[in-house]
Amino acid sequence: MNKPDFDDIFMELAVNLAQRSHCIKKHVGAVLTKDTRIISIGYNGPPPGTHNCDEEFPVEGCRRDSKGSCSLALHAEQNAILYAVKNKASVEGSTLFVTLAPCLPCARIIYSMGISKVIFLNSYAEYKGIGLDEGLEFLKKFGVTVSKYDKIIKNQDVLI
Prior knowledge:
Layout: H1 6-18, E1 29-34, E2 37-43, H2 53-56, H3 76-86, E3 95-100, H4 104-112, E4 117-122, H5 124-128, H6 134-141, E5 145-148
Parallel strand pairs: 3-4, 4-5
Antiparallel strand pairs: 1-2, 1-3
Helix pairs in contact: 4-6
């Protein structure tokens, strides 16, 4: 029997977590790991106890900020990191699996928290229609290992 690689397991989990998102614009999932253990998980959406955008704003979604991003949502990476820290788990030296490459603000948080590696499935720049994945460039510049996950994952077509 062929056993799946941990990278495959973690990215598949991130894709499945993305399906939990209440965002009507984009579904993103993240898994924070250390060695072969899961430290934390997250998906994009408003903070717990606030709104579920797909339920409260099903047609237009939540209000957008000046850059066109959701004004209520936390990104999947932020949710995974915040949950780990809230539960007193160390994220230093960990690896983050995420279905969408981190934006620049998330990259700053990832670097500041001492996360050493990011494995992403899809390009943030392609999604936003911009020329450069600024978050990835920031991470590379400051020594965080970044790699694109190139295998096909079942259910990855459900990512809006």
